[in-house]
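Quick board copy: two proteins, each given as sequence then tokens.
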Amino acid sequence: MKPIVTWVVLADARNASVVVNRGPGKGLAVLEDKAWSAKPATGFSSEAGVGHSSAGPGISAVDQGDPQEYADQVFAKEIARDLEVSLARKDFDRLVMVSGPHMLGVMRKALTPPVRGVIVGEISKDLSNVPLDSLQRHLDDIIAT
């Protein structure tokens, strides 16, 4: 019988990686080929954009958005695409998302329905720098390691 493979995505706004559990009693192992680094946020010009009114001579400032938020969204989409491909190849059966609250929300929006369908748990805390043995304690309630 094939063991149930659970991937745990550990992410912050700049880096993400995957650790894997290959069934009860197998513990956690780092997947070396599943690591991502975000490209730095590129700033917009310091001047606000200007929008012209179609109903008269008025103009108004136009918000250019937040470059860091945009970079976070691009990074989350990159991770989501890779997870979707890996799920289609049946590289994993279940998924656990572990990230700080902001990045977890951004990643939720980027994930496709098939990937969302295999999520068995989320931890809204940045544990990306926690050693594997300590990380296992955080995950005990979600997966049987």
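And the next:
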Amino acid sequence: MTAKTLTKDLIYSKPQEKVADFKFDQDVVAVFPDMIQRSVPGYSTIVDNIGLLAQQFAQDNSTIYDLGCSLGAASLSVRKYATANNIKIQAIDNSAEMVSRCKSHLAAFKSDIPVVVEQADVLETKIENASVVILNFTLQFIAPEKRQEVLENIYTGLNPGGVLILSEKVSLGHSTADESLIELHHEFKRRNGYSELEISQKRTALENVMKLESLPFHLNRLKQIGFTETLTWFQCFNFASMLAIKPLEN
């Protein structure tokens, strides 16, 4: 990484009279690598294994979608590990600032797997001939009433045997357990150098734009849509990554 990508996240380090809703603007993009590593436990493990899952499930002559690609970490992991023939990556994000920086990151990594980065709305993205679709901490920023539509669109566009990799911050549906995991997450952030002010203001910024759902709710919804196999392959505190497999046609 360059020195620029390691710029320290100080966005919430000073008291703000009114904390605005969180958005992926230029300020966030500038510190995003530092922010995500210090805020999401297990993030590097998740990203690395997304590439390994793509190695297992990517099908020849298909497309891999990275929806809500941010700076392209998942796409880079796929390009590092995937071995299927004649595959391509379609990376989508609705933030112009993210897309611009993502293109630079991906261009710096040489690979035989072509990638196209586009600024677009995930809700309006048609999924076609997909063997792997990645939603890495993306669905949580989509309005809850629109999530079913997004997932059904993905399911329709997946080839038989294709997979959805879905990473989310989740709730457990139990107040005591949730409170315990929230406190563990806050301690994780403290140990990574965030102050109580930063933790509090970031939480306020996110409360209106990131609506959490429980892990059982996620898995049940995926099954109702049609995925025959669903599992949680990673969890640390209240951060989880799921794998959902579309059945093979008879």
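Board note added afterward: Confidence is low (pLDDT under 50) at residues 1-5.
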